[in-house]
């Protein structure tokens, strides 16, 4: 019985990983179930044993991706820290995750922010609200009890903050993808966007001015440098291939 469960889990992960590659590179709409079946050399019945449809597969893939991130935040609820420290840690952990996985971050931005992958971004956003809003609500309630946050709607703060974060994230990623902007301007624009986000978070939480610190400017310099180097490296590789 143990061996069968393990094999089931392995096959499911193989399908999810293959779907991730196809969805990101080819686009969700352009990818067919047959593409995945052919790549894995499995029977159609095998695929449908795990997933009833392409939409169900996408939902499972997004859940798989977002679970890793949400697991970083959950321990904060019971940590012996102030609410302000916890809110700051939520953002800092997210930033640290990107910095520690810069190569993957570059690939994700370049593929996920193509027009044909809008549906994947939408689904990831919905899953983020579902998984992370309860954690943020608990931290906000703690802050209200401590007298550092002043809001009558703690249960909605997670969704509001994630909505605002999505807008800022879209701006930052589109800035990274804008080949007409130089590195210095790009980094400055991203920092300015995060300063605005930081100010908005303080206002909606009713937090003291300057208490919310959700980014380190040096992180953006590193991200921009790494992103532009990766683009240049790929460009040189493409030229070499054509020659």
From TrEMBL:
This is HTH tetR-type domain-containing protein. SUPFAM superfamilies: Homeodomain-like. The keyword DNA-binding applies. It holds the Pfam family TetR_N. InterPro entries: DNA-bd_HTH_TetR-type_CS, Homeodomain-like_sf, HTH-type_Tx_Regulator, HTH_TetR. It comes from candidate division WOR_3 bacterium SM1_77. One of its GO terms (molecular function) is DNA binding. Gene3D superfamilies: Tetracycline Repressor, domain 2. Residues 32-51 bind DNA. Residues 9-69 form the HTH tetR-type domain. The lineage of its organism: Bacteria, Bacteria division WOR-3. It comes from the Bacteria. Keywords: DNA-binding.
């Amino acid at each position: 019985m143990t061996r069968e469960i393990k094999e089931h889990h392995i096959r499911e992960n193989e399908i999810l990983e293959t779907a991730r590659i196809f969805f990101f590179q080819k686009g969700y709409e352009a990818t067919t179930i047959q593409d995945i079946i052919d790549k894995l050399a499995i029977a159609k019945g095998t695929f449908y044993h795990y997933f009833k449809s392409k939409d169900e597969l996408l939902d499972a893939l997004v859940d798989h991706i977002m679970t890793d991130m949400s697991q970083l935040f959950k321990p904060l609820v019971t940590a012996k820290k102030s609410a302000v420290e916890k809110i700051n840690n939520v953002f800092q952990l997210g930033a640290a995750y990107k910095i520690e996985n810069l190569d993957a971050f570059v690939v994700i931005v370049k593929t996920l922010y193509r027009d044909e992958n809008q549906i994947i971004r939408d689904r990831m956003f919905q899953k983020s609200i579902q998984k992370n809003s309860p954690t943020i609500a608990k931290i906000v309630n703690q802050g209200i009890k401590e007298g550092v946050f002043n809001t009558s709607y703690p249960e909605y703060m997670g969704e509001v903050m994630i909505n605002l974060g999505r807008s800022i994230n879209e701006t930052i990623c589109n800035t990274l993808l804008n080949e007409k902007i130089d590195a210095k301007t790009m980094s400055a624009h991203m920092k300015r966007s995060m300063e605005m986000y930081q100010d908005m978070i303080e206002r909606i939480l009713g937090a003291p001015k300057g208490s919310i610190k959700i980014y380190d400017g040096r992180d953006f310099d590193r991200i921009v440098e790494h992103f532009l180097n990766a683009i240049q490296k790929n460009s040189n590789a493409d030229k070499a291939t054509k020659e």
